[in-house]
Automatic annotation (TrEMBL), chain A:
Subcellular location: Cell inner membrane
Name of the protein in its database record: TRAP transporter small permease protein
Family per similarity comment: Belongs to the TRAP transporter small permease family.
Keywords, alphabetical: Cell inner membrane, Cell membrane, Membrane, Transmembrane, Transmembrane helix, Transport
Subunit structure: The complex comprises the extracytoplasmic solute receptor protein and the two transmembrane proteins.
InterPro entries (UniProt xref): DctQ, TRAP_DctQ
Residue ranges annotated for the Tripartite ATP-independent periplasmic transporters DctQ component domain, each copy included: 52-163
Residue intervals passing through the bilayer: 57-76, 97-118, 138-158
Record function comment: Part of the tripartite ATP-independent periplasmic (TRAP) transport system.
TrEMBL record, chain B:
Chief place where the protein resides: membrane
Purpose of the protein: Part of the tripartite ATP-independent periplasmic (TRAP) transport system.
Assigned keywords, A-Z: Cell inner membrane, Cell membrane, Membrane, Transmembrane, Transmembrane helix, Transport
Topology versus the membrane: Multi-pass membrane protein
Endpoints of the signal sequence: none
Subunit structure, interactors included: The complex comprises the extracytoplasmic solute receptor protein and the two transmembrane proteins.
Source organism, top-level taxon: Bacteria
Organism: Roseibium sediminicola
PANTHER family linked: C4-DICARBOXYLATE TRAP TRANSPORTER LARGE PERMEASE PROTEIN DCTM, SIALIC ACID TRAP TRANSPORTER PERMEASE PROTEIN SIAT-RELATED
Protein name, UniProt field: TRAP transporter large permease protein
Coiled-coil spans in chain: none
Length: 185, 434, 301
């Protein structure tokens, strides 16, 4: 179970990273196309007129994938920002309760959000919503990706809630960072 | 219930949520949901999904993860070390020495990045480890970065000026021109402060390095070539018509990979680490941005910012008193809402007052950017604070304290552009004449 | 008292928004303050792409969008953007009347009701040189922002360039784009004289904005309130069409005053563009099927 869950979080984050990689590649292709046309025109040749169609819209959709699929991985690497002054000031028992409260709130939000994102995607599917640009992308696809990212996030929060309730440290509290600019509290 | 009481309760709710250690993004979403549930009769969950979808699928926003990724790649290459080694001999006689790199670096980077978070993240990733390793005062290293990171908004291109220009039908090109001199002025103010601070706090500055013979100095300067090449490549791609400012961010990634490869630091591990680091940092920021976008819409429904602004309008203040009132209003609201949201929510109410007071709308745009810049470093909701907490591990309130002198310098900058409106208006007017 | 939140895409200075403000005032007055419309301009509540769905789902009872934004959803919403099909206010009005039943039906399927629709000023060609015939456009990078403008650029022999609106000045001054087709309003507001020299008054098409309500929200009003809204809408439509004509005149003058050469297109250019228009009208009809054929037939009557 633990292994399967960790694989799920890792896979989602890896997919998010792939989205960023694809954005960079598409933009680079577009710019290379312009450079090539510059050179062709300067050399007296017919330009290639290469275009990545609907680049702006598609990059926007990929960004949704990058942002939402990484939510769980970011949580487990303790990269979501929070203020933990109080947590560090109170005794261990109280800190445990605080962490349970924090995870529970986030879990309720994530679950509610997942449900509503799913409704959004479903609605786009029913009404055949598409993007506005040159390529009419059915919005249900990127919205389903957003829902998936939120679902994995909710699962990871449930995971951490159970761990915290059983009296162990949640994933984000056990991260050790070997970062040279990491400060101390 | 009175709107100001509701506003106060929401603000306290946000502080309480953050104090108990709830993640910033989750706190923003929760406060917005509470406001929607109790004050508005539309389905809050549907609004949340719709708004977040609209805010998250954004072409302009793609520049942010690209620049963050670029910073991660450069951080793992030798480039920042080279840059500091190259600059060091030249700055040894300038009080404050390499602290100025933060300010100038942000100033130059602001010329390609329209966002303050991207500017802070990219420059900080490169400069903070170097400054720390060289023994510079951490408070100043982080403070200068928090302050000058906001230049991303003032020096063109700028996301906030695009938003303002679209809402007020002002020429975006003119607004961009108007930001240039105030941006340079802010750089000078920051550098002046750093110099004075360094003169007064000699014991906090690292040991002076040995003087170098001229030949060695020139040799060290050669190490600046890669970073100069990178800057020329990115800015050049925009001005040569090869890339839009948003596309230039991806060019930055490609050039950084190239430099990293050329310096022999690119391998499978460093590539994957940089990409994963960038993915997580941009996810963190995007999630907070999503929460801020939803809170903006919730506030739009409740009408709180609009009513507060209208209340200022009802006082019939003189132009200077109006500016003071507006500045206070923006600073207070800017603590809890993203600065750009405040502009979006209140332009409709504020612009008629501003026009009636006889202020120039281009000038007012620059004033607004300065106030929005301030909101980036006021706790609890300030994007530069989030970026720097993520990078340094110091909590946002501590970072905000380090940034306080720069907040005050921005107030001074506002006073200066009020006293000398030409600072903002001269360039765009010269452009009109030409 | 009922309060309606109304998201709109354009800023307060825009003539569409000003017309909506007058409409809101009138509704308030006619209903004796029992229905108040709170305008959220410049995408401050929902951004342009989200407005239609926000109204459909009842997140806002009323809203405004550019009609052709919905053309990927249904070609019926793209008829006002077929180039040179209706190149004047009178023809645009006639086309609107021909298309209105189909538009109302399509909106009705989504639980939406059309209140009124107002055109933008006619679209002209902005370029850095005078365009005497379509051949002059060949090889130029022409701005395209949706399927129709892309097709037009290709038929004119140009290279399409995808440029987002705020990026236009930079794109022109750095040579990523050489020409664009838009209204004198947009040209004047973005101070087009900073980056182009010629404006060709081709009146290619008159894109429209529309104001529409959520049917359930409308049905929940009292009969008096319903009547007040419909009356105010009718007045707003009339006022909006006149305002659009005034806007065309003043903004074209602004362009001229700032040194842009305003070109009345040569008969050769008109002829060339009309030929492209015919091709695109045929393509549009094929896409829009029976509904499209019915619109064109009613229009040509
Ligand atoms: Na900038
Ligand atoms: Na703030």
């Amino acid at each position: 179970m633990r292994k399967a869950l960790n694989t799920l979080y890792k896979a989602a984050t890896a997919l998010a990273a792939c989205c960023l990689l694809v954005i960079a590649t598409l933009v680079a292709l577009q710019v290379l196309g312009r450079i090539a046309d510059y050179l062709m025109t300067a050399g007296g040749f017919e330009p290639l007129r290469f275009q990545v169609p609907s680049l702006a819209e598609i990059a926007g959709f990929l960004l949704v994938g990058a942002s939402f699929l990484a939510l769980a991985g970011t949580l487990r690497n303790n990269d979501h920002i929070r203020v933990n002054m109080l947590l560090q000031a109170v005794p261990a028992g109280a800190a445990r309760l605080l962490n349970i409260w924090v995870i529970a709130i986030a879990l309720v939000l994530a679950a509610f959000f997942t449900w509503n994102a799913a409704q959004l995607a479903l609605d786009s599917y029913k009404f055949n919503e598409t993007s506005y640009g040159v390529i009419p992308v059915p919005l249900v696809y990127p919205q389903a990706v957003m829902t998936l990212g939120l679902l994995v996030f909710a699962i990871s929060l449930l995971d951490d809630l159970i761990v915290a309730l059983m009296g162990r440290a949640p994933s984000f509290e056990t991260v050790v960072k070997a970062d040279p600019i990491e400060g101390k509290e | 219930m009175d709107l100001s009481v509701i506003a106060l309760l929401l603000g306290l709710g946000m502080l309480a949520a953050l104090a108990t250690g709830i993640w910033v993004a989750v706190a923003l979403f929760s406060v917005a949901l509470a406001a929607m549930f109790f004050l508005v009769s539309v389905p809050a969950g549907t609004v949340m999904a719709t708004t977040v979808w609209g805010a998250a699928n954004s072409w302009d926003l793609t520049a942010l993860p690209m620049f963050i990724w670029m910073g991660e790649i450069l951080f793992r290459s030798r480039l920042s070390e080279d840059m500091f080694a190259g600059l060091s001999p030249w700055m040894r006689n300038l009080p404050g020495r390499l602290l100025h790199v933060n300010i100038l670096g942000c100033g130059i980077f602001a010329a390609v990045s329209g966002s303050s978070a991207a500017t802070t993240a990219t420059i900080g990733r490169m400069s903070l480890p170097e400054l720390r390793q060289r023994g510079y005062d951490e408070r100043m290293a982080i403070g200068t970065l928090a302050g000058s990171g906001t230049l991303g908004l003032l020096i063109p291109p700028s996301i906030i000026l695009i938003v303002y220009g679209a809402a007020t039908e002002q020429s975006i090109a003119r607004l961009f021109m108007a930001g240039v001199l105030p941006g340079a002025m802010l750089c000078v103010l920051f550098m002046g402060y750093v110099a004075i601070w360094a003169l007064l706090n000699r014991q906090k500055m690292p040991e002076q390095e040995e003087t170098m013979p001229v030949q060695e100095k020139l040799w060290a300067t050669l190490r600046l070539l890669p970073v100069i090449g990178l800057i020329v490549g990115i800015i050049g791609s925009i001005y040569a018509g090869l890339a839009s400012p948003t596309e230039a961010a991806a060019i930055g990634v490609m050039l950084s990979l190239l430099l990293s490869w050329a310096s022999g630091t690119l391998n499978r591990t460093s590539f994957v680490d940089a990409l994963m680091g960038a993915t997580r940092t941009s996810c963190m920021i995007a999630f907070i941005l999503a929460g801020a976008a939803f809170l903006t819409v919730a506030m739009g429904y409740t009408g709180i910012p609009r009513e507060l602004a209208a209340w200022i309008g009802s006082m019939n203040l003189s132009p200077y008193a109006l500016l003071i009132a507006l500045t206070l209003f923006f600073v207070v609201l800017g603590c809890f809402l993203d600065g750009i949201s405040v502009v979006v929510l209140t332009t409709s109410v504020i612009l008629p007052m501003v026009e009636q007071a006889g202020m120039d709308l281009i000038w007012f745009g620059i004033y607004l950017v300065l106030v929005v810049e301030m909101s980036q470093i006021t706790p609890p909701v300030g994007f530069n604070l989030f970026v720097l907490q993520g990078m340094t591990g110091h909590n946002i309130f501590k970072v905000a304290k380090m940034a306080l002198p720069f907040f005050l310098l921005m107030i001074l900058a506002i006073v200066l552009i009020v006293a000398f409106p030409g600072l903002a208006l001269w360039l765009p007017q010269a452009m009109q004449g030409g | 008292e009922t309060k309606w939140d109304m998201p709109t895409p354009y800023g307060d200075g825009n003539f569409h928004t000003q017309n909506i403000a007058a409409f809101a005032d009138e509704v308030k007055e006619k209903t004796g303050g029992s229905l108040v419309i709170q305008i959220h301009s410049a995408g401050s509540l929902f951004k342009h792409p989200e407005i239609k769905n926000a109204v459909r789902k009842g997140l806002a009872p009323i809203g405004e969008v550019l009609v052709s934004r919905l053309s990927n959803e249904d070609p019926v919403f793209g008829v006002d953007s077929v180039p040179f099909l209706a190149p004047s206010y009178d023809q645009a009005w006639k086309l609107y009347q021909a298309a209105k039943p189909a538009m109302e039906e399509k909106l009705g399927e989504q639980g939406l009701q059309l209140l009124y629709s107002v055109p933008w000023p006619p679209q002209g060609v902005y370029a850095q040189k005078e365009v005497k015939e379509v051949g002059d456009l060949s090889g130029l990078k022409i701005r395209a922002y949706n399927a129709a403008t892309e097709r037009l650029a290709i038929l004119a022999g140009g290279v399409t360039a995808q440029i987002e609106a705020p990026d236009i000045p930079t794109a022109f001054s750095t040579g990523r784009v050489d020409a664009m087709i838009t209204s004198p309003s947009t040209g004047a507001n973005s101070k087009a004289w900073d980056f182009v020299s010629h404006y060709h008054d081709t009146q290619a098409w008159l894109p429209k904005n529309m104001v529409f309500v959520n049917k359930d929200a409308f049905d929940a009003l009292s009969d008096d309130e319903k009547a007040a809204v419909l009356e105010a809408a009718e007045l707003a439509e009339k006022r909006g069409w006149e305002a659009s004509k005034v806007e065309t005149k003043t903004k074209t003058q602004v362009l001229a005053d700032n040194g842009i050469t305003v070109v009345q297109p040569s008969s050769q250019l008109i002829q060339d563009l009309a030929a492209i228009g015919e091709t695109m009208a045929a393509e549009w009809q094929a896409q829009a099927g029976d509904a499209g054929a019915a619109i064109l037939e009613a229009y040509k009557k």
